[in-house]
Amino acid sequence: MAAASIATQTDGDLRLDSITKRFGDFVAVDNLSLTVPQGSFFALLGPSGCGKTTTLRMVAGLEEPTAGSIRIGDSDITFTKPYQRPVNTVFQNYALFPHLDIYENVAFGLRRRKDPEVDRKVKEALELVELGQVARRKPGQLSGGQQQRIALARAIVNRPAVLLLDEPLGALDLKLRRQMQLELKRIQVEVGLTFIHVTHDQEEAMTMADTVAVMNAGVIEQMGSPIDLYESPRTAFVANFLGQSNLLSATVTGTDGDDVLLTDADGAFRVPKSRVADGVDVTSGRQVLVGVRPEKINAVPMSLAGDAPVHGNFVDGTVVSALFTGVSTQYEVATRGGDVIGVFVQNLRPGAVLDAGTPVRLSWDAGFAFILDGNQDPHAGESHMHEGE
Amino acid sequence: MSIAAALGDTLGESGHTPQPARRGRFVPYLLMLPGLLWLGVFFLIPLVFLFLTSMQTAVPGGEIGEYEQTFHIANYIEVLTDPSYYVPLFRSFVYAALATLLALAIGYPLAYFIAFKSGRWRNFFLVMVIAPFFVSFILRTIAWRQILADEGPVVAIFKSVGLLGGETAGLYPSATAVVIGLAYNFLPFMTLPIYASLERVDPKLVEAAGDLYASGFTGFRKVTFPLSMPGVVAGTLLTFIPAAGDYVNAALLGNSKTSMIGNRIDYAFLTTNDYPTAAVLSFVLMACILAVVLVYVRRVGTEDLL
Amino acid sequence: MYAVIAFAYLLLPVAYTFVFSFNDAGKSNLVWRGFTLDNWLNPCGAPEVCGSLVNSIAIGFIATAIATALGTLIALALVRYRFKGRASTNLLIFLPMATPEVVLGSSMLALFLNLFVPLGFWTIVIAHIMFCISFVVVTVKARLASLDPRLEQAAMDLYASEREAFRRITLPLLAPGIAAAALLAFSLSFDDFIITNFNSGQVNTFPKFIYVSANRGIPPQANVIASAMFFVSLAIVVIAQLAGRARRKG
Description:
Chain A is an alpha+beta fold.
């Protein structure tokens, strides 16, 4: 009975239209719309509590939207039961059935749909995750990484139109996580299903996904390819959540050809008009935020800079702290105007670390900067931990 | 930590969401209906009947056991001012309190031992605590009677050691025997909740206390014991309440001078067929227990024992 | 060391009962007369011993079956659904456990008397079901609350309807809790004396029989039965433990 009513339409893009979810007075998801092209690897990225898991659960059917609609291709699945949707989920804690062995766990969905080829498909799925030999063991006897792969096999074996992954790698240690990220990507390409991966780890999202949507407080702040999001963020939150950014307050003084002219306590800058985020007003006199990422900045000690011409924008300051991280050295530089700028310098020449107190000249190519609306918190989206935990 | 926060995000939104209103709002009520109905009919209504019975008076010129409903509230006054009733009532609470203390004194170290010092034998010991209760409790109590009797081994040992002398040792029948019997009968009810609380104490907490300069006993006093309090409270309540209403121990191990309120109720109901008095005594007992428990719980401060 | 003493204290009456089951004592088992195996070979020798035992077992089974069913349903409702009156229901469940047996027994007697219901086998069953329900609810609730509700959600995500998810996932995982509750109910019913005494009329259960014959003299066959029960229950628990350990390994 359930088998017949599952939408046989397994192709089509996933579309969420104006989805809203309210829990009493609390709005978890606020008028969210997005389209996930069929066959793509889509990441929903955001901090805890931003609503990404709630959105995922609405797609799975485990939560009902307060408003809006969900479609796969032409079928509206907004109110269909979870067992009638061509959607499967890999849960964060795997949710493997402890009283069934691995084979039966993986076969569960197939059996409910009275699939005629259970044995072949189960074996195929286990081979895909390279765990064919544990078929008769129980979930409690497997390691975390193995359980995660079984949870994946259990979902994939049903070839759903959309596969949802709810922070599946959260409980794994770093090395295993990196390995699984590559595995998941390989499997997705091989099987060709639409994957929607929910995570709070920005590095994970960027390495695996074709498209990333950054969510904050129930809305999508920006959506696009990882490169677009990283190099051209549109809000302070996105700029700070992906990697790190220096966001400085500046005033527009005018334009010059293709560039916007700005000024702040440290002097004047130029930023190409193409680097202004959509909708930001750059008429003269406006306050905006100028952003530039730490790795794009070059730091040269004043003793060496001298009066040599500088290409691009520059600012002078003093080193406040230096953190050696192996690949790079991370500096904090205090400018004369009172800002603190982060600079990441690749350790190309061993022993070239600048000590605290050294006067330096910071410079960057104008094309690397971006301009954001001035009416937002320049620290939105910042985290206090750097390596994805 | 970000992962914990993320977990919280998931759990808060997904883990324990109840079924949405759309899907059969009446299901829980239907599920509970038969059970609650049974409780309603056979627990609540009987209490109502008991209350009604407590206000009946004998039919004048009628047979024994015949009563009519007269809403005679004075029954309560009559009973409460009769020493042959309020003395056993008072006695019951004293015995129950003593038995509870005794059970606590025996049970707490026992629970502590099983929780921390039993190693691989833990399950075995747990079973050993419950096992005696597979032997009918009447038989066990009678066994105690034999054991404590004048001709029995215990008295003989004490006599030979010189602790007791004279004609009769008076161990049985006596108030002491009743209290021992009560403590014995309810020992698992005291031990198991305490064990459950202690088992959940993270030994690292005690280590942390030691790291912060607390000696062994102080560590226990300041860390372990307070953490086991919920178990102690549960255990004492589960022991005291039934003990106050028990009468089998008093009947088998005591004599007319040690009778408890339970004996009086039993006597009134089944022997003299004085139903109103028996009903009055029952409600008085319940009220007193409720009062004691409320005072106790408020002092100890735990609300959610369930 | 303290533990040894405590356990000795616990097992003393049991040991005593066991020893005296071998007493060659005829009707009254008060003084040791001599060792005999007769009692064990002929446990139903004394009148009423086996009769009352059969009653207790029958009552136990019936009461357990019904109480476990009713209690499990209540537990399911309390844990899996949020509804008005949850707090009062919890209170109602808790009350019988907190009421002294004397009051429970006497109030049921009052009910039966006032309705002119004859006392006997079925009034005992009714009473037992009543006080067992609460214990079943508490036991099953504990087990149910520790079950991850996401397992049921995962089942539905994998095309199982609510009913199928319950039948294939929740119920099997709940089974040990239900079994424990049933076992608890049976023990409570079998060993109950006070409530039974008030509501049994002329019918004897095993504990009641022992109490009633306490002054006349308890036949040693009763000791035999009690000791046998002790060892059987012990064996059941031990076997269950070993089975659980074996299942966890394989």
